[in-house]
Write the structure tokens for this entry.
Amino acid sequence: MKPRARHLHDERLFECYLTERSGDALDPPAAEHLADCDACSARYAEMTAFMESLRRDGDADADAVFTPERLRLQQQQIARRIEHVGRPARVISFPSRIVRRTIGASQSRTAPRWVAAAAAAGLFVGVALGASYEWNTRRIPVASFATHDANPRLAPVATRGDSPVDVASDDAFLSDLELALERPHTRELQAFDAFTPHVREIRDQR
Amino acid sequence: MSGDLRPLPVVDAPEFETVDPPAGDARRRPAAALSDDSQLAIEIRGLVERGEMDEARDRFGELVTLHQRRASRIAYQYLRDASEADEAVQDAFVKVFSHIGSYRETWPFEVWFTRILINGCLDRRKALSRRDRWFADTEVSSADEARVAAAGPPADPEHRLLARERRARVAAAIDRLDGRQRTVFMLCHYGDCTPREVSAMTGLNESTVRVHLFRAVRKLRGLLGGKP
């Protein structure tokens, strides 16, 4: 009886898978062993199924995303992108023509510039005149008031009469008013206020 | 997320030529039969060199048609956002057309193009991770989700929900891979590249690519419990 060879290692089985996938024939010892040994044959079948299912899933996944329509669009996009490859770049005649035109334009714009300057000057003069007029109109009433009301202190007094009695009663009224305003309104402080000498009282004593 | 991202070598065309093809690689020998897309790229290069740009653009459209779907799959798996993936694919194609003069038939066009695409995706991923520090993270945008739901068969809500959960689980598991493991896995698994082609794209040794790929798959199986 022919002694059975040892089982094939995983690495060897994988080599067999790669060989078979590339379309080549398996090496005879490995092929014979796989034919004879059920265990190795089952392991090989399991590994092949695993690899194939991985590939099948991956391809199905990608093919579902990259549909024929999408691939067609992609191809159009590539064609559009390579359209400019190898063609000389289009030179835009920017410097000479534009600069010349700019110079010409600046000369022709000399007159409008003067017009703009004159308009600005006119505006400035107008604003300045307007401001000075307003300033004068504000000053005039003040000056007239000053001339009419040269002695403002006398004006209210003149309405009350010029007699010395009236003047004294006015002074008393005003001093009472000041007193009332100077005194503290808080009841607790009024006692302290009574003790405190006031400037007015000292002045009256003199 | 960005910490594990190790950028691939620079993919700009002039530097790409400096990588010598490994000995014994029949696909990268100029004498070997060129693939259709590589031949087309050489024709476009000739047209551009002669200044026949309109014709070059027309022919480039054919090249776009050949690689567009695969490029979109890779970009979408990398970025998990349809708009970002769309822009990444467009940028890659525009970059290819702009630098078509530096394409050399030493390399299959697919390798050259995918390398440009992957680097663009990595840059975008970095930018997204920077943005995610400030905004809420979304694995799949709601618009994409709606589009997926609409494009799929009219399955019952339970089926849709399960499919959505499964996709999210797989995406999260892939996201947990180491940067190089993720790149290698994406290219091999979703980009249909052989380890040899991935080696050419990434500048990694082919055996290193195989090791990264195996570790990525083992980790994914561990994370997904053997089933996606």
Summary: Residues 143-150, 152-160 of chain A have pLDDT under 50 and may be disordered. The two ends of chain A are 155 Å apart (CA to CA).
